[in-house]
Amino acid sequence: MTPHPLYTLLFLLLSLSAFSQQDETAEKVSDPAKIQPAENKGKPKKKIEDLKTVSIKGKSKKQKAETSGFAVAIIETKEASLRNLTTNELLDRSVGVRVRQNGGIGSNVEYNLNGMSGSTIGIFIDGIEASTFGQSFNLNNIPPSMIERIEVYKGILPSHLTGDYVGGAINVVLKKNVSKNTATAAVSYGSFNTFQADLGASYRDKKTGLSFRGSSFYTYTDNSYTTWGNSTTYVNELGQITKPYKAKRFNNTYKSVGGRVEVGFTDTKWADQFFIGYNGSSNYTEIPHGITMAVPYVGRFNETEAHALLLNYSKKNFLIKNLALNINAVRSERSTYLQDTVSYAYNWDGTIREIIEFGEKVPLRTGGGQQGPKTMTNTDRKITNSRSNLGYIITPGHRLSLNHKYEATNRKDEDLLNPASQDLATKSLVTKHILSMNYEAESFNRKLRTNILGKYTTNRNNQTKSEIVTVDGVNSIVKKDTITSNHNFGYGATASYNIIPALFIIASTENSYIMPTEMQLYGAPENNILPNLGLEPEKNINYNLGFRYGALDFGKHRVSFYANAFWRNGYKKITQQAVDVTEIEEESDADIQTTRYVNLGRTQARGMEAEIIYIYNSRFNAALNFSQFNNVFKQKFDNNGNPHTFYGQQVVNEPYFTFNANFQYRFNNIFQKKSILNAYYNTGYVKEYYTVWGQPEWSKTPSQFTHDLGFSYRFPSKKLVASIDVKNLTNAEVYDNFRIQKPGRGIYFKLNYTFNNFL
To answer: Cα–Cα distance between 603 and 253 in angstroms, integer?
Structure first.
């Protein structure tokens, strides 16, 4: 009989706790600083108390990035990796970021950076688009323990992330340090039968520079949380709808496994870093409903698999002095299988819906699958994604860089229920070249830092769709080609001025186009997204102005401030199509199952974000941030030349005011000497917003106020850490995209163990 995951967790806690006590004893014996050599016996001890502290002034990577002129925030993951936090939860707590997730762990995610979302936002893993690695290896399932830091840019991007984006980007930088031979392991269990585990290891041979780094993760959850808001409905045999309806989610299982292995050389004559690697992952996702929650699904699921080969090379003083070369390339093969063949309609209590026929109750059939006709499809993607950067330092403080980005997605869609699927497969090819140049300069005694960007983009989309045509009783296969191509030029600039030692003024502007992505053009049935080949490029003109002040030290007190104002103008904004209240007859018509991406028209977002961080005696940390923006529809006239009904309304299905507060306090020597106990408290607020054009009252997503509480205990050996987190402590109603209810209260336990110098 397989032991319950909770029992396994408790066993590991007791076992590793014993190991940690042994490690502490060994440390006391083996510490050479605590053993007096025989030849020193009887001699007076040298006093070493005279040297109290050594102060080294310099900027960390975080400080350098945040004062470089870009509107950027750096999220460090060291503490979070020891807790039951996902990468998306970390992002959702940061200033100006809203993670739009359609339910629990593993559900579809979109990101909003102060009103910018969709294809305007770049989501990267080590500078390569996360979509290259597939749904089974992205920010939804990569644990914070694999991550060194997260860079969140708003507006213009630096040269190493130059691409077809204008609203900003999230770049996840995975751990790369191989200076120590270490290994880490973590396991957690919590509410809704959620089990997670991850492993990581690094090794470097000092003589040859040969290095290895690897990491892996596993996630399983039933996602069986209870919903009770207006989004959940019950329909009786007479067709009468009960709303709200309290129910426990089913057909919502998520399972994911993935890993990355890299082998190469560091700090050699011919390369600072050279790594080749493999990234593999797969997941199984049950789809519990469509775009809205009104209709539950049973038996609709998808399975994905991705295999990627990696190449990373970097070298300073490449061929000549002051010339640096960086190459980052990935070749991946992804597959997505979708099945939907159950032909009964269900209610949220898990039972089959019934109707009255000839005076009797009979099961209601859908006439196909849960969402339209019966479906068994497979989508294969072969993706090549490479980025090259050549940078030259002209003189100290002046750097010129040339960047080339190439991306090609070869997609094949097959209908497995059709015997002729091989001949009727739809094939699509999306290619993109981006050539850009950056000029970075430091002037006025290095107080002023500027970065000027120009980029040229070419795009080509080619789709071949086959269909059977009957002429005079004879069937033949006709292929239809749809080809579109375009090119455009974009530009931007950033500036940072150090007025006084702790105060930086930061400004940026950008004017650029964004092409629709492969998923937006050709759809994603596993995410209920229909194709729209008529999508046009989106144009954005953005401005950012802000400041960063601190950190200021006042004895044991340390304070830093950040604020940024922005003005963003979008033309032909690409967004998910929402319901227009003038085009429906009753409220239930807004319970859509699918949607597509459309060009909305002109929009304008003006707002600001701010954050204050306070630290006391290196033991108490407090961070408060908020973001407010008015992302308004600015299309004055409709297609017929009449004044547009929704002119001046807030863009629907987007929260426009968020607030977060995070507190942490460290207790030393609690329960055991040299132990550390950390206590955490987080609260978040999202203001109400609408999901339907016209803003009917019934489409309002209510205000949300959540509280999280957590504790982590580091044992004296510093190798074992145990933590507990209570999320959504008050079991508040929490919603997201199209008012989908998210999990209520959950409790999670986690263990982390570090092995040092294992080889």
So the answer is: 38
Tally Cβ neighbours within 10 Å of residue 244. 15
Residue 43 CB contacts under 8 Å (≥ 6 apart), including other chains: none
Structure tokens of 256?
């994911």
> Is 600 in contact with 580 (CB distance < 8 Å)?
no
User: Hey, is 443 helix, strand or coil?
Assistant: strand
Residues 568, 496: Cα–Cα separation, whole Å: 20
List the one residue out of 364, 344, 318 whose CA is nearest residue 251: 344
**Do residues 165 and 514 lie in contact, with contact meaning Cβ atoms separated by under 8 Å?**
yes
Task: Give CA–CA dist 39/561, Å, rounded.
Answer: 55
- Contacts of residues 550-555 at CB distance under 8 Å and 24 or more positions apart, as own/partner, are 550/502, 550/613, 551/502, 551/613, 551/615, 552/502
Look at phi and psi of residue 167 and say left if phi exceeds 0, alpha if psi is from -120 to 50, else beta. alpha
Flag whether pLDDT at 404 surpasses 90. yes
Q: For residue 565, is the peptide bond before it cis, meaning its omega torsion is within 30 degrees of 0?
A: no
Q: Are 567 and 543 in contact (CB under 8 A)?
A: yes
Highest mean pLDDT among 16-20, 37-41, 410-414: 410-414
* Rounded Cα gap, residues 131 and 279, in angstroms: 13
Q: Which fold has domain 72-756?
A: Maltoporin; Chain A (2.40.170)
Using alpha carbons only, give the angle 165, 383, 303 rounded to the nearest 5 degrees: 105
Q: How confident is the model at residue 468 (pLDDT cuts 50, 70, 90)?
A: confident
The residues, ordered by sequence, that sit 6+ positions from 199 with a Cβ below 8 Å of its Cβ are: 183, 184, 185, 186, 215, 216, 217
Q: What is the pLDDT of residue 425?
A: 81
CB atoms within 10 A of CB 133: 26
**Per-residue confidence band for 280, with pLDDT thresholds at 50, 70 and 90:** very high
Task: Give the domain ranges of the chain.
Answer: 72-756
**Using one digit for the tens of pLDDT, what is the confidence trace for 191-217?**
999 999 999 999 888 888 888 999 999
To which H or E segment does residue 147 belong?
strand 147-154
Taking a C-beta distance cutoff of 8 angstroms, is the pair 432, 484 a contact?
no
Task: Give the model's pLDDT for residue 133.
Answer: 92
What is the average per-residue pLDDT within 378-384? 95
User: How large is the average pLDDT for residues 492-502?
Assistant: 91
